[in-house]
Amino acid sequence: MVLAVAAALLAALDAVPSWVGGEPREVRRARTVDEVERRLRARLMLPAYFPARLAWPPVRIRYVVSAPGAVALTVAARGEGAGLLLVQTVRPGPIPRQLLPEAQELDRSPLAGGPAAGVLSRVVEDGEMRWQLAWQQDGRSLLLRSKGTIDELLRMARSAREAP
Amino acid sequence: MVGKWWVDYAAQSVIHAFVAALAIEALLRIWRARAPDDRLALRLLGLGQPLVVTPLLFLLMPARQGEEFHDRWAILASRRWEDLPFLGTTAFHVAVGAAAALGVMLFLMDLVPLLPGRRRRLLPAAPAPPELEAGLAEVAAAGAHRHSPRPPVLHFVEAPGPALFCVGVRRPRLVVSRGALALLDAEELRAALAHELAHLRARDPALSWVAMAARSLLFFNPVAQVVARALARDAEWRADEAAQCDRLALASALLKLHRAGLRAGSPWPRSLPFAAALSEPLRRARSHDVEARCRRLLEPSPPPSLLLRPARLALTAASLAGLSLLVT
Question: How far apart are CA B52 and CA A111, in angstroms?
Fold first, then answer.
């Protein structure tokens, strides 16, 4: 019984960071893209086209280790304007729901042709309408969500590749 | 796991020691373990966690440091606290740093007085009074000490301060001062000598150096430092029981030496971290430790040992090791 109580207390202690951070237990945070790549032992796919209105590096990097492994990069806009959410898996598999903010999908349109073939959707997140582009590339699942333009999303998606 | 491996090692060492120490304290109370040998054995188990189990887990199961293990198996993954920013860094690093600083401080508090430059040499031995030699011979010949490996050398010093302790591993010596002789009556002196001989019979001076070596290996672990000190207190209690002398006289001697030491201060700093000296509490032990020892001595009979002790110890050790496996 003593050890059961000890285990319970330890589990409670383990839950504190998740409770304080408001994140599920399996979602971790990293400080840099390099750090999350080391932790997941995989290179991320990043867009070669990156609008000047967006600031790099990401302001928030969250990741999940359990299969397939996934990362969510939150990129802020410089000054006024909408930021960007880029989520991707590092191995084949669906994007974990814990990394995606809750959003209601209004409609979706399949996109065909080229490396960015996927699904373009309108979603409502926190009462605001956003464009969401989801596609598969090199066995990975990727997703971009932003209040920016469709053209911006498509250009970023088409330019996404693994950094050397 | 990203980050310095030794930071993870320090964190796990402290957590394993802390969990083990709390569990052992709870078991001591639940089992009502009052025999000093039982308490020593359980506390040694607690000290064994960070000393033996943690390094073995690190060496034999490196997969425990991986995040997959943390997600799937770990009850507590201390690195999760890296997600909490605190004081310009993370809560994890602050906690590990604070624990290590406290551990080092507790370790140095007991190490520094033992350093060669700091340790005062004993005064040269003087001819011992006949009554002291007779008293020691009588105690040594008594039942409890009849089978001692070899009689200790008596080192009598002409010093006014109260001092009565044993030193030496290869050549054990019993140090008695003129001040201690003047303070104690014949019965109290015999009881005090019996206590010291009990320490020597149990090889406590050697064990104290072993404990200090363990503390050196765990210099960054404050829980291990505290547990090692608790071991020293239990060893004093064990010597009290093993002396098999007039318990009232021993309690009286303890109190007299303690009070005299509070008034005058001990003439010698402690030369061993675990030194079996009745005059040691004068400077190191807190007064309530002395009070607790006296209360136990005033109880009519020694406490009984735990039933099925080996099984309980084995179960405790296995359970703690299993729990440590899941705490990273």
Answer: 60
Could you give the domains of chain A? 2-162 (3.40.1000)
Parallel/antiparallel/unpaired status of strands A45-47 and A160-162: antiparallel
Taking an 8 Å Cβ-Cβ cutoff, which residues of chain B contact chain A?
A: 2, 19, 22-23, 26-27, 30, 67-68, 70-72, 74-77, 80-84, 91, 319-320, 323, 326-327
Q: What is the pLDDT of residues B278-312, one digit of tens each?
A: 445 445 656 778 888 888 888 877 778 888 889 99
Residue in B27, B68, B75 nearest the CB of A7: B75
- For chain B, domain boundaries: 5-116+307-325, 130-298
Token pair 């002396």 is at which residue? B243
Measured CA to CA in angstroms, residue A145 lies from A125, A149, B145 at distances of 10, 10, 83
Q: Which residue has the tokens 């990069």?
A: A73
Name the pTM for this structure.
0.80
Interface confidence (ipTM) of the complex? 0.71
DSSP character at residue B49:
I
> Which of B275, B255, B139 has its CA nearest to residue B197?
B139
Q: What are A3's two structure tokens? A: 């050890």
Question: Which of B18, B71, B73, B89 to mutate against chain A (most A CBs within 10 Å)?
Answer: B71
- Give percent of chain A above pLDDT 70: 96
Name the residue among A14, A35, A39 with its Cβ closest to that of B67: A39
CA angle B176, B177, B180 (to 5 degrees): 95
- Does B320 sit within 8 Å of A3, measured CB to CB? yes
Query: Count of A–B CB contacts within 8 Å?
Result: 59
| Residues of chain B falling short of pLDDT 50 | 1-2, 266-279, 281-282
Closest CA in chain A for residue B318? A3
Asked if B72's CB is within 8 angstroms of A66's CB, the reply is: yes
Which residues in chain A have their CB less than 8 angstroms from residue B30's CB? 2
pLDDT for A150 beyond 80: yes
- Picking from B22, B74, B84, the nearest residue to A21 by CB comes out as B84
Going by C-alpha positions, the residue among A133, A129, A148, A149 that lies closest to residue A83 is: A148
**CA dihedral defined by B98, B72, A10, A6, rounded to 10 degrees?**
-130
Cα dihedral B269, B272, B277, B281 sign: positive
Mutate to test the interface with B, among A10, A16, A26, A33 (most CBs of B within 10 A): A10
